[in-house]
Amino acid sequence: MEIPVLQTARLTLRAPKLADFEHWAQFFASDRAEFERGRMPRGQAWRVWASDVAGWSLRGYGPFGLDDRQTGAYLGEVGIYQPDGYPGPELGWFLVPAAEGRGYAAEAARAVMGWARQSLGWDRLVNFIDPRNARSIALGLRLGGAIDPEAEGEDPGDVVIVHDLTRLAA
C-alpha cells in the first residue's frame, strides 16, 4: 500500500520513517505520556509504534509523520489508530515539545479528517481521551467534535469525542 502525502499550509503529513521512532520513544519515556498510553520502556515503545505503523498495510490507515513544510523539521505524529481491542478507529496526535501551542495538531487533524472522509468514505471519527487531558479534550472540541457520554472508549472513563465527517466540505 502506498501511504498518501497530505499537504496543508504549513505541514507535510507523510509516511512514518524509522527516524520518527526516536521522537516517539522520547515522548513515551517522559511524563508527557501520562495521559496517552502511559510511560513505557524503549522496547515496549518500539512494539507499540511498529504496531501503529503496521496499521497502514493491515488496515489501510495509520499514523502520519508530521513535518514543517518550510524547514523539514519533524513536529510529531497525527493519524488514525486502531490497535487490537479498540472499539473503533481513533483520530489521535502527539507533538514534540517545541511544536506545541502553534496549532499544528489541529491543522494536521483537519487534514486527516478530510482524507478519511474523501479516501475512506467514513462518516465519523472519534477521540478516546483521558479525562485529565484537558488540552486534548479542548482540541477535540475545537475540531468540531462533540462529547458522547454513551460511547465506548478505550479505557473506562475515557472522554469520547465524536467527529461528524459528513459536515466537512467535499
Helix percent reads 25-40%
How many helices does DSSP assign?
Answer: 4
Which series of helices and strands comes N to C?
A: EEHHEEEHEHEE
- The secondary structure category is alpha+beta
- From the alpha-carbon coordinates, what is the Rg to the nearest angstrom? 15 Å
Question: Would you tell me the overall average pLDDT?
Answer: 92
Sum up the overall morphology in one term: globular
Number of DSSP strands? 8
What fraction of the residues are assigned to beta strands by DSSP?
15-25%
List keywords for this structure.
170 residues, 4 helices, 31% helix, globular
Detailed description of the structure:
The longest helix is centred in the first third of the chain and has 18 residues. It is globular and about 40 Å long. It has 170 residues and is an alpha+beta fold. The strands form two sheets. It has a five-stranded antiparallel β-sheet, with helices on both faces. Strands 6-8-7 form a three-stranded antiparallel β-sheet, with helices on one face. Strand 4 and strand 5 form a beta hairpin.
What order do the helices and strands come in, and which of them pair?
Blueprint: E1 6-7, E2 11-14, H1 20-28, H2 42-59, E3 63-68, E4 74-81, E5 90-95, H3 104-120, E6 124-129, H4 134-142, E7 146-147, E8 159-164
Antiparallel strand pairs: 1-2, 2-3, 3-4, 4-5, 6-8, 7-8
Helix pairs in contact: 1-2
In short:
The chain has 170 residues and is an alpha+beta fold.
